[in-house]
Each structure stands twice: as C-alpha cells, then as structure tokens.
Design goal:
Length: 176
C-alpha cells in the first residue's frame, strides 16, 4: 500500500496555491480598467535574501526593530507572494489625494486609485489562501524591502508581502 504523507506534498501544494493567488490578484477589479500592478512569487533562497536584507536594515538603524521579527517570521514560509503598484495617476482629477489635479501632484505622491487597486488585489489574493486553509499574513515590512530591492521593478513604489505556510499553527500570528 502506497501512502502519501502531508509533509511530502505540503511545499508543492502551497506553491500551487500561491500561483493561484497571483492570478486572483491580477484579475481583481482595477480603476478605469488600468493595471499598474506587479505580482510575483518568491521561494526558498529569495525569502532568505529578503529576510537578510530586513535584518541588515534594522542593524543599520534604517528600519524599525519589528522588521527583524518579520524577517525571522518569513523564514517559516513555504513561499511568499509580492504585490506592488506603480504610482501612476489616472487623470481623473478627483482631488482625493489632496491635489487640485493629477498634473499638479508630486510624482511620488500615491494616487488613491493605485493604492485602492493594490488593496483590492491583496484582498483577492489572500481570500484564495483563506478559502484553501493556507496560513498567511499581509506584511508591509516585506513589501517595503521588496521595493527597496527593486524586486518588482524600478517603477513599483508601494508593495506588500504575503508569506504562506501550511503548518499546525499559523506562524505569522502570536508574534512577540
């Protein structure tokens, strides 16, 4: 009799689900139908590299102390999803960002629609993890490092990381 044990399939199953999360983020609704997102999957050595960069920034006092906690936390993930957005005003002149028009705003000031689309995409992605009972947590600290490392490209200015794990207890909560 051949048995397949959970421990033997766990990593592949989490990676397969992460790929579905990438698609869910991509197909999430976007303002004016304009897509300014970049979405990627990070595995093994990539997670270690991000973690090391987070720790180095804490040691150089360029990042808050909790980045170290998050850096240790992501090492427990089977993989990590990154979702980021460009800052690209849609030309709606809505004034929601605080500027009178899209032409008058600072080029580094986020467009409300870019960040809204990012939030919707993150919600869509994590709902896939939740529906499939995969542990996750949305982490701005991981996204900030991804932006600094230009992992999603030089035009991505705001990002979040979502570590994923299949374990007996979610390692991304009950943190100290």
């Amino acid at each position: 009799m051949k048995l397949t044990f959970e421990k033997d399939i766990k990593e592949k199953q989490v990676k397969d689900l992460a790929q579905k999360m990438l698609i869910a983020a991509r197909t999430a609704p976007k303002a004016c139908g304009i897509d300014n997102l970049e979405i990627a999957l990070v595995e093994n050595d990539g997670i270690k590299e991000i973690s090391a960069k987070m720790i180095a920034l804490v040691q150089s006092e360029k990042a808050p102390e909790f980045f170290k906690r998050d850096a240790q936390n992501i090492l427990q993930a089977q993989c990590l999803v990154l979702i980021g957005t460009k800052i690209s005003p849609l030309g709606l002149n809505c004034k929601l960002c605080g500027f009178e028009s899209c032409k008058n705003k600072n080029s580094n000031h986020p467009c409300i629609f870019n960040t809204g689309d990012l939030g919707i995409a993150i919600g869509s992605a994590v709902s896939i993890a939740c529906d499939n009972r995969i542990d996750s947590r949305v982490m701005y600290s991981v996204g900030k490092i991804a932006v600094e490392m230009k992992l999603l490209g030089k035009d991505i200015k705001i990002a979040y990381g979502i570590p994923l794990s299949a374990s007996s207890k979610n390692p991304f909560f009950d943190r100290k």
